[in-house]
User: What shape does this take?
Amino acid sequence: MNRGRPTPADQGIGSDGFVERHGLHTDEQLAAVAEVVAQIRENDLRTVRVVLVDQHGLPRAKFLSADAAIAAMRNGSDFSGAIYSLDTSNGVFPPAFAEGGGFGIAEFSGFPDVVIVPDPRTFRVLPWADRTGWVLCDAYFSNGRPVPLDGRAIMREQLRRLEAAGYGYTAGLEVEYYIVRLVNERIGLDQTGAPPPPPAVDVFEQGYQFLSESRLDGVEETLRALRDGLTAVGVPPRSMEDEWGPGQMEFTVAPLTGLDSADAMILFRTAVKAICRRRGLLATFMCWPGLPNFFPSGWHLHESLTAVDGGQNVFASDTEMLSPVGRHFVAGLLEHAKPMTIFTTPTVNGYGRFRPYSFAPDRIGWGLENRGVMVRVQGGAGERGTHIENRLGEPAANPYLYMAANIAAGLDGISRGLEPPPPVTSDPYAEEAEPLPTSLAAAITELQSDTLFRRAFGDAFVDFYLMMKRAENARYEAAIAESPPPQGSVVSEWEMREYFEVY
Assistant: This one.
């Protein structure tokens, strides 16, 4: 009898040897497992949070013991597949217990578990939680097949296609979000079974002024906590700014490569929300909270491609503002902008940004150092750091789908040798150009008729995503019909209930 510490095989976690049996870890990941085990032991961790990012870009988690987490590195861990049936209000949107989960995938019949496999490269020790680790996971069915609804797997496939074409992907984060003070909070469902309203909040900054040093100094303790916490988990902020609204911040993070860039966004949002929560604050990545004097927030995605052989930035040019490869990439983004919008701006709430003179795009176009266009080129002739900035995104976007959509669209532009129209050189809001979708309903229609993303992401995912977004939009329209917002109101109560806390 083993009277000592239980071995990983004794934990009853996952399926014995699942990772090796199905060849799910690369050599790099296999080497990283030993390092993770050493960190768990050296830090005397008691809990490891195994995290699966769902279709909304929201982290779902189980808390495992240290030994169970070590076992999961080898065996995987069971995780409820029911999360893929949940909308942003945690309601089940497909027909319950329908064959194929209601969305035509045989392995989802009957609300089964999936198997999540930790990616040891993403392991972190959380400084804000006592003796606790954190690791992102990939999702598989029990037969070893990747779950086709897993955004991380979708982005990985786009990166593989990009590498086959000779390129690597680099992305930097520029994220706006709000911090508010919690006044009170209701937890759980009310007597009707409806979700509670958002907690009562107060503004984080009692006044506000764009890029105000004194305002930033007034909240320095919170910014310091965020700075130190983000640095400790490997996502150090490169800059922290005061934005237009009260408590509205903008943080940037230095460029990262491949999947790490999307993983960083998940860790960034997780850290900011957790650190703020411990200070009696709520950080929300909802695009446009319906609170006085609040403005929309955006997520501007800075990106470029590098040569697989040599690593040089292939968007840079000695003589032009953007290289031929860069122009083809931009042309692909513009060509597929309308169906791509549902991945960059997945909520009802996010479409309020697309207005004239809002510093967000309202039509399809590009230009050099122009903050009103959809795709802004930063750098120019002779600049080694030349890259593009996609200004479509809202901060609630699923980072894997946002980046995967950019890669798929840009790669299509490269493979077809597409050329963009002339860049905007004056007022982008006065240009004659195709408008962007102005509602989630319009974005759904664009994806419905699109072929690129169906080819790139697969029929199963696109059909599933359309079903989910149709259900979300139908709930919104029903709520608005039943209780129209007051005249002049931009953000409905339904949007606040749906998105304010969950994002």
